Amino acid sequence: MSNHRIIEVCLPARKADILSYRLPDAAFVPLRGTRVVVPIRNRIATGIVWQTHAQEPEFVLKDVIKVLSEEPVLSEHSLNFLEWMAAYYLQPLGIALHEALPAGILNAENLDQTAVSENSKKTRRKKADEPVEAQQSEQFISTLNPEQLTAFNAISAAISRKKFQPFLLHGVTGSGKTEVYLRAFAECLSYGRQAIMMVPEIAMIPQIIRRFQDRFGDSVAVIHSGLPQKKRVRNWIDIKKGRVKVVIGTRSAIFAPVQDLGLIVVDEEHDPSYKQGERFFYNARDMAVVVAKMTNIPVVLGSATPSLTSYFHAMNRHYTLLEMPYRVESRPLPEVQIVDRKPKTDGALSEKRGSDKTPYWLGRELHAAIAGNLERKEQTLLFLNRRGFATYIFCEDCGHVFRCKKCDISLSMHKINEDDQSLSANLATPLQKSDGRLVCHYCGWHIPAMPVCPVCHSHNIKAAGYGTQRLFEDISGLFPTARLARLDRDEAASPKKLENILKAFSKNEIDILIGTQMTTKGHDFPNLTLVGVVWADISLNFPEFNAAERTFQLLSQVAGRAGRGEKPGRVIIQTMLPNSQAIQCAMRHDYKGFYENEIRNRRLLDYPPFSRLIKLTLDEKDSIIAETYIRQLAAWIREQIIINKIKTEVIGPSPCPIARLKDAFRWQLLFKASGISAQRHTGELLTKYCEKELAKAKFLRIDVDPISFL
Ligand code: ADP
Ligand code: ZN
Ligand code: ZN
Fold first, then answer.
1. 391-415 burial, b for 16+ CB within 10 Å, e for fewer?
2. Ligand 1 site, residue 144, Cβ cutoff 6 A
3. Among 137, 169, 179, residue to substitute to test ligand 1 (most atoms within 8 Å of Cβ)
4. Could you tell me the distance, in angstroms and rounded to a whole number, from the CA of residue 173 to the centre of ligand 1?
């Protein structure tokens, strides 16, 4: 008799969820979560054992080639979590698995051999190199203030009970949230358990890791996608073996192979970076709450500007609200001034004509404040959420706007020769031949900046609008002796470059830092006393239901950078919408006011948290196929929703705000479900439809709980 067994194997990155194989020698049966090498079509691949005794199917199965080390790489808990994740986000299990396993783990020869010593050596060396910095950050705060103490006690009680409890820690910038996290981690470690600290961006890791290493030494490891593969694998193993207790990372840290988890902290929980916007759309903040629930532990979501949804849960007592409304040592919140930059018909003109040297984007108030700050040798941050030099290029004779060949997007101008200061900053700047390139911010397609209009052959080509690059140039013209730096995705392309710029700024080697939202997060610069928001309205004008929330958060966060040291801070917000709720509330540091107004709007329009969304996007090169397909799908699903009495509203189909991207026409269909079960039923219908037409459906993308609608 044959001595075999049937196992089910999940192959990472494959859409076919799970495949069955024959295990020829059933004397040794691998556990769930073990790696096996299997044949697939005409090649071999490594997969994860998902089920160890499946039914023998009627057709002939292929044999497992070999079992890679006896120990499973994924725990039972991880497997369950991935199943949940695939089901909730309506994605194949193989794709979920691919997200969770760092490249390198799957085929690593021997996962047991790597030693921990490497990590510890690094830490020690680093401390010897940077004695001054280490000392600065190593201040141990002996007494927590009353709000910190209340927060800490609540979290620590939950840790000792080892029960699921979600906390929302609402603490203004500089209120000492990180100190509370550190204490909570120490508490968790005292029970011998591991803990995960999540931050939204790689850029925030260096300074947070310093504070955690000062407290917990070698017991800290980092997980994020920017690590070199070898290091990532080593850290992964150290965590799995329990050699490391504290895991710090970005959203992928939620997949860290912790064995005995006691606490998860999600810092800046409102941050959209927790949402992965490609391959697999998931929100790591939401997943942290699910992991906490599955493993019965507390989870702390912290923010100065909580997401509307999290605050709503706190108001409804699903989350425990902890509040820290004051900065430590009673440091004041910065004074915020709104400067109305609406063009007043005559005023704007006279300003344009009169002030030959002042760039038109720079109001009098901000100009004077920057000059004052330079004089006092204090630092300034200029914030503009748009990179590049000019935002569009047009022909003044026929009105032609240069657009991306593949996207429905106007091209932005980026200068190549940064030292060239020949461009003066008038409203519309004449284009020179050598100016640089026109770049599509969505697909990267670019052409040399052309001095001729392709439509009417006029040479009257102008650049309009401004980005961080132009700000930089204008400011260096105005303040030639000031030390400037730019911080945006062009300038700080790698984490290393980014860290260097931030380091230089914190060492006072830069007077004025000009940057996009990269500059707004978590950093603590004691000598930064002026924050100028050059144009606050950019994100307010996005066609998205959460545009006001995003703007309020962005403004509050960037404003929170000012005056975190001994010296008080000042913020100047330039806007053309001075009366908008988001800007007014940010000025008054009034989170509750903003929340109450915005939650009313959401209720009125039935947007989250009062409904749950699914977004379906279609990308297709042929415009007729695209429209026909999405209309058919919409008609089918509308009918199904009625037949099945699902409480979901179908909105659309409509062309996406960016109607063409990378050569494809884009349509979207939005589903507004009344609650979680309607959302699930809608998702099931969508999956059913896509499976029915799998061949066609490859250009569909399903996004559960979407936060972006462009
Ligand atoms: P947040 O994370 O809320 O922005 P931090 O935890 O970074 O705030 O605290 C801001 C600053 O105040 C840090 O330099 C920190 O060391 C210091 N700090 C925190 N708690 C206290 C305290 N109880 N007493 C004195 N200083 C504190
Ligand atoms: Zn023209
Ligand atoms: Zn493009």
1. bbbbbeeeebebbbebbbbbbbbbb
2. yes
3. 179
4. 9
Q: Which atom of ligand 1 is nearest to the CA of 324?
A: 3
| Cα(509)–Cα(149) distance, integer angstroms | 36
Tokens of 622: 């042929």
**Which residue out of 135, 178, 269 has the highest number of ligand 1 atoms within 8 Å of its CB and is therefore the one to mutate?**
178
Q: Are strands 428-430 and 461-464 parallel, antiparallel or unpaired?
A: antiparallel
Q: Which pLDDT score, from 0 to 100, does residue 124 have? A: 41
Q: Looking at the predicted structure, is the pLDDT value of residue 224 above 50? A: yes
- Please tell me whether the peptide bond between 448 and the residue prior to it is cis, using omega within 30 degrees of 0: no
Task: Tell the residue number behind the tokens 């070199």, with chain if given.
Answer: 228
331 CA to centre of ligand 1 in angstroms: 11
Rounded Cα gap, residues 128 and 120, in angstroms: 13
Nearest to 5 by CA among 70, 64, 46: 64
CA distance 524 to 206: 12
Q: How far is the CA of 434 from the centre of ligand 3 (A)?
A: 22
Q: Are 651 and 670 in contact (CB under 8 A)?
A: yes
Q: Is the CB of 488 under 6 A from ligand 1?
A: no
Strand partners, 68: 35
Average pLDDT for the chain = 85
| CA proximity to 575, closest of 587, 561, 590 | 587
CA separation for the pair 556, 568 (Å, rounded): 16
Please report, to the nearest 10 degrees, the dihedral formed by the alpha carbons of residues 494, 498, 503, 505 taken in order.
Answer: 150
**355-359, 407-411, 502-506: least confidently modelled range:** 355-359
pLDDT tens figures, 4-48? 788 899 998 767 778 889 888 766 788 899 999 999 888 898 999
Structure tokens given for 52: 């160890």
For range 77-100, the mean pLDDT: 92
Q: Distance from the CA of 124 to the center of ligand 1, in angstroms?
A: 25
Does the Cβ of 173 fall within 6 Å of ligand 1? yes
Domains present along the chain, CATH in parentheses: 5-111 (3.40.1440.60), 132-330 (3.40.50.300), 332-388+467-598 (3.40.50.300), 390-465 (no CATH), 612-704 (3.30.70.360)
Please state, in angstroms and as integers, the Cα–Cα distance from residue 22 to each residue in 41, 44, 55, 171, 462, following that order. 15, 15, 11, 56, 68
Q: How far is the CA of 453 from the centre of ligand 2 (A)?
A: 5
pLDDT bracket for residue 432 (50, 70, 90): low
Does ligand 1 have an atom closer than 6 angstroms to the CB of 145? yes
Shortest-distance Cα residue to atom 4 of ligand 1: 174
Atom 26, ligand 1: residue with shortest CA distance? 328
Under 8 Å between Cβ of 358 and 478: yes
- DSSP secondary-structure letter at 449? P
| Per-residue confidence (pLDDT) for residue 4, from 0 to 100 | 75
Going from the Cα of 357 to the center of ligand 3, the distance in angstroms, rounded, reads 34
Give residue for tokens 């950093």.
Answer: 523
CA of 180, closest atom in ligand 1: 6
Rg (CA), the chain: 27
CA separation, residue 203 to residues 196, 232, 306, 368 (Å): 17, 17, 20, 31
Which ligand number lies closest to the CA of residue 445?
Answer: 3
